[in-house]
Amino acid sequence: MHCPFCRHADSRVVDSRTSDDGASIRRRRQCPACQRRFTTIETASLSVVKRSGVTEPFSRDKVVSGVRKACQGRPVSSDDLALLAQRVEEALRASGSAEIDAYEIGLAILGPLRELDEVAYLRFASVYQAFDSLDDFESAITSLRAEHAEQAGRDSRADVEEPDGS
């Protein structure tokens, strides 16, 4: 790391801390030549490989804008969308790959969006998964209903108290 003051080719790390969101590392450095200190912020780059083969940096804003269209008219706040984008980015970073296919980003969006708002999920899935007919919608809705029934069954079993055996 070059010193920003004297352009010396080396520096020493004095302190390292993870940022509040955990996405970057803040390093306090000192130049051995001029003894001045400076701060660097390091992040792991995450690139998106588009269908055309073009690579561009990952953008949470693009995730939010894409999902915002599906959430139009739904009770979903900007904070909800920002949190969804953060969850998507964290999931993608957890994969350990520096380059992510654009299709994988769409898949990573579907799960959190389903939890956030099912109507928005159906809208997004219909475009993303290229629904061609009513059968595609029926299949997605049947899957959501089965999930609801399964969750309701788990909830009712949790409400039943265990006998104490006395």
UniProtKB/TrEMBL annotation:
Zinc finger intervals, unnamed: 3-34
Q: How is the cofactor bound?
A: Binds 1 zinc ion.
* Sequence ranges assigned to domain ATP-cone in this UniProt record: 46-136
PROSITE patterns hit by this protein: ATP_CONE
Q: Keywords for this entry?
A: ATP-binding, DNA-binding, Metal-binding, Nucleotide-binding, Repressor, Transcription, Transcription regulation, Zinc, Zinc-finger
Q: Which cofactor does it need?
A: Zn(2+)
Entries under InterPro entries matching the protein = ATP-cone_dom, NrdR-like_N, RNR_NrdR-like
Q: Does the keyword ATP-binding apply?
A: yes
Q: Name the Pfam families for this protein.
A: ATP-cone, Zn_ribbon_NrdR
* Matching HAMAP family: NrdR
* Family named by the database record: Belongs to the NrdR family.
- What is the documented function of this protein? Negatively regulates transcription of bacterial ribonucleotide reductase nrd genes and operons by binding to NrdR-boxes.
What is the official name of this protein in its record? Answer: Transcriptional repressor NrdR
Identify the species of origin: Isoptericola chiayiensis
